[in-house]
Amino acid sequence: xxxxxxxxxxxxxxxxxxxxxxxxxxxxxxxxxxxxxxxxxxxxxxxxxxxxxxxxxxxxxxxxxxxxxxxxxxxxxxxxxxxxxxxxxxxxxxxxxxxxxxxxxxxxxxxxxxxxxxxxxxxxxxxxxxxxxxxxxxxxxxxxxxxxxxxxxxxxxxxxxxxxxxxxxxxxxxxxxxxxxxxxxxxxxxxxxxxxxxxxxxxxxxxxxxxxxxxxxxxxxxxxxxxxxxxxxxxxxxxxxxxxxxxxxxxxxxxxxxxxxxxxxxxxxxxxxxxxxxxxxxxxxxxxxxxxxxxxxxxxxxxxxxxxxxxxxxxxxxxxxxxxxxxxxxxxxxxxxxxxxxx
Length: 343
Description:
Helix content: over 70%
Distance between the termini: 77 Å
Keywords: Membrane, Transmembrane, Transmembrane helix
């Protein structure tokens, strides 16, 4: 009995000793599984990320033709829209300036704490100003590109749009050869003048005779002119203008090429240019925002296009600032540099 009394605790002790090492061996395994090492992003991945921002922003700004729309609004939309354009550009410049200043701080041995910006003597002043500049700039730029600030469709904007279309067509013709380029440039200039005269004559016939001249000569002519001119038959007007410009009846492109002295083998190139120009003129008269806004830059992006154009502009700016910021020293290296100087 005594032997059994002594022998019974031994297995229990061995069992306890067997369990405790196993528990001790499992616990470090759980800790090691919980602490997964995350590798910091490499310089190449950072470059690619910022380059994508620049690429998408540049594509959106170019496709929506944001600079041309802002220029059209500034020149033709009146006092308040032009000043709204200036305000949006000023806030955008303020955003770029603040970002550039923050990027320059590590080069001067200053490492601001962005995670605790409210306690940092520099960031607690600049961060609210930067936030207001970004939000205010985005809203003002969107409004400047929106239909609220779009230039009125009057004779002046029609003629300017035609001039842009003629310049674009003549520029395209320059790739076809010197002979076609010189003739097409002259033709497009004549067509632009004739179309503008047709616009004025049509508006004069439709408008009341006692106020037609005053309305057409006023800088801010009524937008109803666009609706009145929408009844124009572009194709018949096109044939009449070509015939009156060159003299005689010109029924096809071959006859037009012959009249201009262009070789018969080049008539297809001329036909393509005239077709492109005709589509742009038709889009200008009809007010098609899907094509005239991109091709002619008349400030008619619509609300969705205005928001996308403003977003693309700021994405491009943020991407460029991010690329420049990659050249700045890291906060850790800046802190080590300050510590060495203090020692």
